Amino acid sequence: MLKRIAVTSAVALALGGVVSLASLDDTGSVALAPQALPPAPPSDVDPELAAAAAEAPKDQQVPQQVATAALPPAPTKAPLSVDPVERRHVSVGRGDTLMQVLMDGGVPADNAQNAVSALSAVYDVRRMKAGQGITVLFDHSEGDKFIGLEFQPAAERAVSVAFNGSRYQARQIDKPLEKKLVAARGRITSSLSEAASAAGVPYPVLDAFIKRYAYDVDFQRDLQPGDTFEILFERYYTPEGEAARDGDIQFASLTLSGKEKAIYRYQAAGGTADYYNALGESIRRAILRTPIDGARVTSGYGMRMHPVLGYSKMHKGKDFGAPVGTPIYAAGDGVVEQAGPFSSYGNYVRLRHGNQMETAYGHMSRIAKGLRAGMRVAQGEVIGYVGATGRATGPHLHFEVLRGNQQINPDSKEAKIEAGRKLDGKDMRQFQTIVAQDQEAFRDMQEGTTMVAAKLGAGHVVQAAVKRH
Ligand SMILES: [Zn+2]
After folding, report:
1. CA 418 to ligand 1 center in whole angstroms
2. What InterPro entries does the entry give (predicted)?
């Protein structure tokens, strides 16, 4: 659903107003259709009318007019009907610089240059996306002088540049966002993505849901028609009630052939947020067996004739042959214990995971930029690149799994032991409160006070509700 760009002329930038220029599509990204601009609104719009328009229902498919700042009192000596400020709407095309866009919009080069340089104090213009709408302001009472510009890079953020009489000044206004929880529930009839979309689950949330369950569920094979899911996720709203972006999944449940698997997000004392089952056990599984894509095993764990030393020696890791520069991933969540050159290992990284488990990575061509001892890494994060530093005959990753400081066979059962944690004590008590709250959120939804239900064909009922945390 692409809502058309919405423009209001209710508040002039020179008066300190902030104007909302874009609405959101369902995924939370700004959807702009610069080719479908409504005709420029008349410059004598009554502020009260604009304010009324701002209160119109948000789900209408008409361009919304939203004035986001308190309207200043109308100036007495300059009636709005002869508003000297002209607002010209331009949009950034692919590959355009802001300078070009402003000049194409009629701004003299030196003014455009000054405005862009003022803007850089609050906004990185290189981050401006194609399709971004910009309102350019000219003052007819001063010989069509360019007096500023304004745009909204995100629903919760407005950026403006205004001429203050002597120079251009930029400012950024972040609106306070309110977090609400969205509960969605669905029954899979043909595909999970179809059911999720019908239940109002945006793709990034579904993607996170699939990733969370990937330790446990094979989404290609395990799903059956009739299986159900529930997802409780955060959504952030602007003060106008506009959805700005989605946040984390708080709770999810997947019922496969009648068997329910529920996961809950919890941040343990001194740790990062993670997902746990109802028993308070981390859902993360053993470290990855292959911390690299598309590599072949060139040497396993065990006794072998050493390729460089030329005599039989215990090989305490597993070698993956891969071209120089192939990314190497952290095999599990953990903390960097060592990152740098280390004897015959060359460029070496060692990570500490839970349960006395560690992994080590040798012969890297280089270590990922900024990776240092003490840093926390997530499973799958790039920690370095394949090389042949140290004692190596050719480019490969030498991968070790250690338990209690001893190398073990990465393919052994011992190495598959869960690297996650189990909550206990105070953490467990707090976690149980959260479990009860999340379950209550879904019970409320079933009771139907705030529920929006949609029937989508026989046996295909999905529900979605918005509830304040
Ligand atoms: Zn090796």
Report:
1. 24
2. Cell_wall_metabolism_enzyme, Csd3_N2, Dup_hybrid_motif, M23ase_b-sheet_dom
**Which domains does the chain carry?**
2-69 (no CATH), 85-174 (3.10.450.350), 177-284+420-469 (3.10.450.350), 296-415 (2.70.70.10)
Q: What is the mean pLDDT of the chain?
A: 76
Band (pLDDT 50/70/90 cuts) for residue 285 is low
Q: Find the 302 Cα to ligand 1 centroid distance in Å.
A: 10
Q: Ligand 1 centroid vs 364 CA: distance in angstroms?
A: 12
What b/e string do you get for 95-110 counting C-beta neighbours within 10 Å, with b at 16 or more?
ebebbebbeebebeee
Phi, psi of 439 (to 5 degrees): -65, -35
> What is the average per-residue pLDDT within 174-182?
87
Task: Report CA(319)–ligand 1 centroid distance (Å).
Answer: 5
Q: What is the pLDDT of residues 287-310, one digit of tens each?
A: 777 788 767 888 888 888 777 777
| 6-10, 177-181, 239-243: segment of lowest average pLDDT | 6-10
Give the model confidence (pLDDT) of 101-150 as tens digits. 999 999 999 999 999 999 999 999 888 989 999 999 999 888 889 999 99
Cα–ligand 1 centroid distance for 269 (angstroms): 38
Confidence of residue 418 (pLDDT cuts 50, 70, 90): low
Report how far ligand 1's centroid is from the alpha carbon of 317 (Å).
5
- As a whole number of Å, the CA-based R_g of the chain is 28
Task: Tell me what the mean pLDDT of segment 330-339 comes to.
Answer: 90
Q: Which residue has the tokens 């409780």?
A: 232
Secondary structure of residue 344 in the 3-state scheme: helix
Contact 84, 26 (CB under 8 A): no
Q: How far is the CA of 387 from the centre of ligand 1 (A)?
A: 12
Phi, psi of 430 (to 5 degrees): -65, -40
Mean pLDDT of 352-363: 88
Whether this model's pTM surpasses 0.70: no
Q: Residue 385, CB half-sphere, CA atoms under 13 Å: how many?
A: 8
Q: Which of 328, 296, 289 is nearest to 415 (CA)?
A: 289
Cα 324 to ligand 1 centroid, rounded to whole Å:
15
Please list, in sequence order, all residues whose beta carbon lies within 8 angstroms of the beta carbon of residue 344, skipping any fewer than 6 positions away: 390, 391
